[in-house]
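Let's practice the habit of predicting before peeking. Look at the sequence and jot down your guess about where helices and strands might fall. Then scroll down.
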Amino acid sequence: MPAFPVSLPLEFTLGCADGKPGNAAELFESVSQNIKVKRYSEALNDLNAAIETDPALSEAYFHRASILRQLCRYEESEKSYKKFLELKPGNSIGEKELSQLRQAQSALETAFSLFDSRDHTKGLEYLDKVVLVFSPACSKAKILKAKLLLAAKYYSSVISETGFILKEDENNLEALLLRGQAYYYLADHDVAQRHYQKGLRLDPEHSELKKAYFGLKNLLKKTKSAEDNVNKGKLRLAVEDYKGALALDPDHLAHNVHLHLGLCKVLVKLGRGKDASISCSEALNIDGELLEALVQRGEAKLLTEDWEGAVDDLKSAAQKSPQDMNIREALMRAEKALKMSKRKDWYKILGVSKTSSVAEIKRAYKKLALQWHPDKNVDNREEAEAQFREIAAAYEVLGDDEKRAKYDRGEDIEDMGMGGGGFNPFGGGGGQQFTFTFDGGFPGGFGGGGFGFNF
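Done guessing? Here is the structure:
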């Protein structure tokens, strides 16, 4: 069905109330031309003037009703249809279009309700399949469609729809606002700002345009402050600025992905691995292909000693960018850390730090060896032997400068108790026997059975 009838129904061309068919034909030709170039007001003015001259000109009521319906001026349209049907009772075309009017009116009301209830998809269906079919020139419906598209995050479609509206009316404030918001959520901030500024030049007190414009200015200011503080080495201030910028608009994903990444990088530098990992995960939730976020999260997991997680992230990053040597080096560090985490921590077993001196290590060993000597733990001899074996193995490594250096570098060391059978302080099973005798022996006669200590 054409948007507007380009020719009258046959019954309309057979006569006019003033008896001058030619005048009516000229009138409706002028109306048709105005409609083609979307000069609806001029078309309505012509029809209103014709009706004022001849109140019985039925086809003028029909055309006026049709134009008003398509502009979604439904109440006025319905009155004109009813007047037409009074003059042409039972006219099928008039009755059909009156029915279409009522369908469009009901669908538009429903679409507004669906917008309020956030059912964006169904709201768009009502507009596209009913309202804009019967009322294609309805500006309210077009603006509502742009709002629904924006709420559904179809930003490119918003730009397209508002482009059509602004082509007809370049000063439409709602269209300028919606188009600016679409560019804003695509992180095209310069273009968004230009739309807001144009709208504010037309109406400096427009509340929504002011809110959008100054909200954008504040976001850009906070973002720049965070970046400047990073460059100045003021990392803690940068953290606060990034958090402040993120709090301004949690829905601005296209921009927030970079804020989360920036925050993650700063937190890694500050050694706050847990917080950094959360920030990078937020960035990856927005853009799962963001390579730098994956790398930084791997670094953050190294800080929290999540060795396997770090290896997984950095391995994924290396697969995405196999030529990046920095990523490969980070992966090697993570794999080494994972490997080291699976071996026994001899420092922990002896209860000493990695910076302890040889003398401190020796004292710790003596104390624990006395505590866990099997002859002193008759009631729990099996546990004591296991503990004693661990203590002796730890000292075998940490008490030797060369072995200790290799251990600290993460190198493999054979025959030092790491493989489960290379070291046996008891000498059983045919292995090497170790005899240790503390100065003065053990109080109470300990030292029998091959457990003497000699330093």
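How did you do? Confidence is low (pLDDT under 50) at residues 1-21, 415-423, 427-455.
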